[in-house]
Hints:
The complex is a heterodimer of chains A (407) and B (468).
Chain A: E1 2-10, H1 14-25, E2 31-34, E3 51-52, H2 54-57, E4 61-62, H3 64-77, E5 80-82, E6 86-90, E7 95-100, E8 103-114, E9 118-120, H4 123-126, E10 136-138, H5 139-149, E11 157-160, H6 164-175, E12 182-185, H7 199-202, E13 207-209, E14 211-217, E15 224-229, E16 232-237, E17 240-243, E18 247-249, H8 252-255, E19 281-283, H9 294-311, E20 322-326, E21 330-334, E22 337-338, E23 350-355, E24 359-367, E25 370-379, E26 385-388, E27 399-405
Chain B: E1 11-17, H1 21-33, E2 37-40, E3 57-58, H2 69-84, E4 97-101, H3 104-119, E5 125-129, H4 130-136, E6 146-150, E7 154-155, H5 160-171, E8 175-177, E9 182-187, E10 191-195, E11 198-207, H6 213-219, E12 231-238, E13 249-252, E14 262-265, E15 271-274, E16 278-279, H7 290-303, E17 312-320, E18 329-333, E19 338-342, H8 348-364, E20 400-402, E21 407-408, H9 409-416, H10 425-432, H11 445-451
Parallel strand pairs in B: 1-2, 1-11, 2-8, 4-13, 11-19
Antiparallel strand pairs in B: 3-7, 4-6, 5-6, 9-10, 10-11, 12-15, 12-16, 12-17, 14-15, 18-19, 20-21
Helix pairs in contact in B: 1-5, 1-8, 2-8
Amino acid sequence: MTTLADVLVVGGGPAGVAAALELRRRGVEKVILLEREGHLGGATRHCSHSPFGMREFGRVYFGAGYGRRLEHEAQQAGVDVRYGHSVVRLGEDGSVLVTAPDGVETLRARRVITSTGAREQPRSARLISGDRPIGVVTTGTLQSYVAFHGLMPFRRPVVVGSELVSLSAILTCLAHGARPVAMLEQGPHALARAPLTWLPSLAGIPFLRGAEIVDIRGRERVEAVQIRHAGEIGTLECDGVLLTGHFTPEASLFLQSNTGVDAGSAGPAVDQDGRSANPLLFAGGNVLRAVESGGWAFREGRSVGAVVAADLRRDPAAREFVPVTYDDPVKLTVPSLLRPSHLREGAFRHFQLRFRRRAVGRLSLELDGQAIWSRRGRWQPERRVLAPLPPRALLAAHVHFGFQEET
Amino acid sequence: MPLQSTPGHASFDVAVIGAGVVGCAVARRFTLAGAKVALVEKGADILSGASKANSAILHTGFDAPASSLELELVRAGREEYLEIYKQLGLSLVRTGALVCAWSEREADKLEDIARQGRENGISELGLMTAAAARATMPTLSNGLVAALEVAGEHIIDPWSAPLAYLTQAVGLGCVFLRGTEVLRGEFDGRWRLETSAGALEAAAVVNAAGLYGDTVDERLGLGPEFRIKPRKGQFVVLDKAAFRHVPRIVLPVPTEITKGVVVCPTAFGNVLIGPTAEEQDDRVRATVEMQTLEALLARGAEIVPALAGIPVTAIYAGLRPATEKKAYRVITRPEKRAITLGGIRSTGLSAALGLARHALRLHEGFGATFAPPAPLPAVSVPNLTETCRRDWQQPGHGEIVCHCELVTRREIEAALASPVPPGDFGGLRRRTRAGMGRCQGFYCNARLAEMTRGRLATPLAVDEGRKP
Lengths: 407, 468
């Protein structure tokens, strides 16, 4: 069966819901939101600790409460929300293959917005050495154990990583009777900012910088890890390994399609409107890049929704795009494509960049070989970097971020 | 523990020791012949040792040693698989293989390999120029010099096959005793086995204990005539995005030391790179190592450049039960009514059904006869492979529990209620694919912890039983 919608939104986290709300607000008739779970909210559903909703709804929600607010808003706005609908394949022509409890269905729309979010990389993708016992999980898994089932996967985990989410992972452990044995950061510095990084020591958890797991040991369940720290190998007894951070876009729908993903961000390559190389397919939220807050994802989804509402009024923009290139310590840019546009305002007013590693130097935006913006700084990995996206960039034949490193 | 009850003094015609792919096939073959069979396994589930980690290729035997028992049994096993797979709900992905030469020296060897293959009775062999080979698989690196096509090499689901063999046996009365380690055995006209879960009696024993083949023979007072020298193989599984780049099995030209690294599709729609061949003394630990995995990834991208940058879905390592010699170590002791199927290194999946027939033939020499059961009930295991219809495509599946692999609630419930239910989390993964996908259980692991409460030897949650 084929249903014709104006817009299909894939994924009911903050970005997807915001896009759907904005489309309806701008009078788009038929907006179908496909959500694989039984509720809206996406990753915010298991984040019991973080406040959400301040900027979009003017009040603070926690985890599930924020999701309920999204559900309420979507219902009020007349969004056709389909729960338990898991998208299997993204078609080139605006169709998507869906599986739901009633079976398989193909839905078709004039535009598709993918907002499938991000997740932490599992142990396999990090190629961590050792046995493969039970008890090696990511923060997201731990939090769904706790939030949805009242269970715990371990009592004495070693925590790997020092991003913001790592601190949230420690709070989740402490709140549910688990006592982390240590927190390890491979680099020389914590990736989150002080004073948040004081948390482990306040909780009496050793924070080892420059430390990494070299061997996970355990037959059935984790029994110990060997770590390399300050050039020496040591053993930490534990019953689990909690892998935190290392987020990656959940972009498998693009990865498996002909459109593919961007080598830098691992999410779909999009232009200033959130439009991919295929002009029917848009994306917004953390599927574009790992990783931003729920509030950021919401605003981004809303901007993409606004653009798509305008885009529906004309033929799909099949114009050629210009890829955005960048020098090495820059890991990714969003957008990573630019297209000449009829729209008064794009979805993104800035380039978002991330650095691969710590670097000191001058970052500059060059249009057709000419620097139009630059800034010197001390750049950190996993931190948001914004650069202006002036309208004339859309007309340039070469768009490049240069970096002059100071040693 | 929800595992099956202790055997007491139950009496059997045949006790098969070890529920790897060979043990499951042997249990099936003897049960089909009419024997009352106990399959004794020390692990919590079938395939707890060498059989859980292999490259899932159904071999032709083109590169097996000439006129060896291995060649005979690989061919017999393959032939029977092709006869029975459809009835059992199993799959066959007809990929064919290309033995790829990446240098002139390797190319010179292809002729010999082809000759050997023809002597081994494999007719569908074709020497190809690099251009012809790349016409059948355009993603191969342009460093290719020449190739040998082996059309009969195929891919199967390596876990559902033994599960189907045992499911069929259990349906006909075979008793599967898991969590049951054979500690000692005595023969005085009949075998009396002492196990970690009580004693049992059997007229004959078949040792299919894989990595512990020598240990079990020793415990039974039989030799041992060989020593297991575990050989580790590490593998990397790439995301399903890689699948379209690897339509065929890509084999290297083997060296004296190793068969080399294979790049092949899996029946589940991924791509596999591996194995390594690393000798070790440890029979328990099969660790993965970052540097080795990185080297495998690099090798994979040399062979098929489009694989570069495709995310890793899974990493694993297995141990092959190699011995001092390359040959299978099949030993029959009519005076003791004992058969040892040892040293089944890397062709066990292909040869298992052949080994089972061979064991039955050897057992016939012991003089016992059985009456085959009739009629045979129909047995079928659920399909997990991408080439056939999956449960998520049918209405009424309840919900998708694992979105990466599209595993339904109905499939998980069916596995838990099946005649040979999973005994541990690995067993559940192998039976359903849940948690095997790109997020490796980020989404479904907690749900599975909830659904498998009280069902697995090692529960996923540490506080099982406590409700919020």
